[in-house]
Amino acid sequence: MIDDNPFAIGxxxxxxxxxxxxxxxxxxxxxxxxxxxxxxxxxxxxxxxxSRHQTVLVDFWAPWCGPCKQLTPVLEKAVKAAGGAVxxxxxxxxxxxxxxxxxxxxxxxxxxxxxxxxxxxxxxGALPESQVQEFIRKxxxxxxxxxxxxxxxxxxxxxxxxxxxxxxxxxxxxxxxxAPETIEAIAGLxxxxxxxxxxxxxxxxxxxxxxAKKDAPALAALRARMALAEQQxxxxxxxxxxxxxxxxxxxxxxxxxxxxxQNARGERDKAADSLLAxxxxxxxxxxxxxxxxxxxxFEAWGLTDDATLAARRKLSxxxxx
Length: 321
Prior knowledge:
Layout: E1 35-37, H1 43-49, E2 55-61, H2 66-81, E3 86-92, H3 97-103, E4 110-115, E5 118-124, H4 129-140, H5 145-161, H6 165-178, H7 183-195, H8 199-206, H9 217-232, H10 238-247, H11 252-264, H12 268-281, H13 289-301, H14 306-320
Parallel strand pairs: 1-3, 2-3
Antiparallel strand pairs: 2-4, 4-5
Helix pairs in contact: 2-4, 2-6, 5-6, 5-7, 6-7, 7-8, 7-9, 9-11, 9-13, 10-11, 11-12, 12-13, 12-14, 13-14
């Protein structure tokens, strides 16, 4: 027997319009925490009790159901993109038929939204992605769009950091469908494309930024990284550059090119030190080129990066001591 039995609802879930409040605030959950499978025994905890904290969607499906296979990935993507506004719990009715029976579900796929221990809305059939997103906005709280976007962005950043680039990209895309001028989503999606080797695609995404926000720090930093990568692609063999420096420590061009390669390798401190050595030896070399390149590194690395902070202190000492 399930606690707080909510199942005497007839067919109201088929087209219900009851509005429910958005999920409670707090840290954005990791993408993997938003979707899970459940059983008859776990249904009360996973759905009834959890829905007292935020809206829970229950996806009733079966392995033999073709439309279920179409709907489930669309549901998962939309739930992750909602960034914690709702959770998704999937129930295989072949293995666990009693809950679907109590709900009177006769056709699958069927999705029921629970809030405060009660079913409040739902739909049947494999809806297109846009309608699934609209349903989630409705049951998750349409009046909390900014908070939902903030949670979605945080979830995407977590997925990116964990190496789940597909989930991160899906979330950024979904955010941009709802709020096309969201700078964090534009920068995040462009960064994913750039890191995947699609510089052209990244540049195209950056072009989507509104004119008034094209110089936003997140976008400027990514453009700087892309410019550096383009420069680094034309550089030579580091061993040859090091040999040139060994024979002539005043070969500033070799040291400059080596700094670019060091940066490409992720050796930020070494790259900064190479450029600082040029500034110290010949500030006017190449129209102050070493210092200007160092400033470009700072922009690409980020103003609070450890390498930026350390190199900026050294540069200040050189310039003002």
